[in-house]
Amino acid sequence: MVRRVWAPQGQRPIARVERRYEWLYVYGFVRPATGQSWWCLLPRVNAAAFAVALATFARDEGIDAAHRAVLVVDRAGWHIAHDLALPDGIDLVLLPSYSPELQPAERLWALLDEPVANRAFADLGALEDVLVERCRVLEADPQRLKAHTHFHWWPADPQPESLQ
Stretch 15-40: mean pLDDT, rounded? Predict the structure, then answer.
């Protein structure tokens, strides 16, 4: 990831680089109208891991056949995989191709990256600790998430039938 850093004018910034890689992926869901969010860290990003994230999200949020949720996603391979197992109550709405900027969750990643950008971590556990804390901070600040994800054109939440 490219981020701006401060350095004296005319000098290149110096950053420690280690050429070994371990991966940790953050799955995040946000309700744009309220800023309510849900986060999950997994070692992979693929259809199987996405299915685990969806199932855990559905369980945690009480989503089932009677209490449904619609998730707007881009056309990443793991979102459209033929073998993707969707939990009962979750429906996916696919955005047009090449338009990930329309997905509200895309705006979460810059906020999530703030404490890890331009840093090297001793191990995956250290990175996980920072990311877990960041997810907790963001989850506790729904107004900030709403400000980043509630686009002016986003549809209003439907009213429950009992209130109509």
Answer: 87
Say yes or no to pLDDT of 158 above 90.
no
Coil, strand or helix at 124: helix
| Domain spans, the chain | 25-149
CATH of domain 25-149: 3.30.420.10
123-139 tens-digit pLDDT: 999 999 999 999 999 99
Q: Quick check: 134 and 119 in contact, CB under 8 A? A: no
Question: Nearest to residue 115, comparing CAs of 25, 3, 23, 35?
Answer: 3
Q: Are 103 and 151 in contact (CB under 8 A)?
A: no
Burial of 159 per CB tally in 10 Å (0-12, 13-18, 19+): exposed
Task: For the beta carbon of residue 137, count every other beta carbon within 10 angstroms.
Answer: 14
Q: Which two tokens stand for residue 69?
A: 């949720």
Which is more confidently placed, 69 or 158?
Answer: 69
Ranges of H-type helices in the chain: 47-61, 77-80, 108-113, 124-139, 142-149
Quote the CA–CA distance of 90 and 63 in Å, as a whole number. 7
Task: Tell me how long the chain is.
Answer: 164
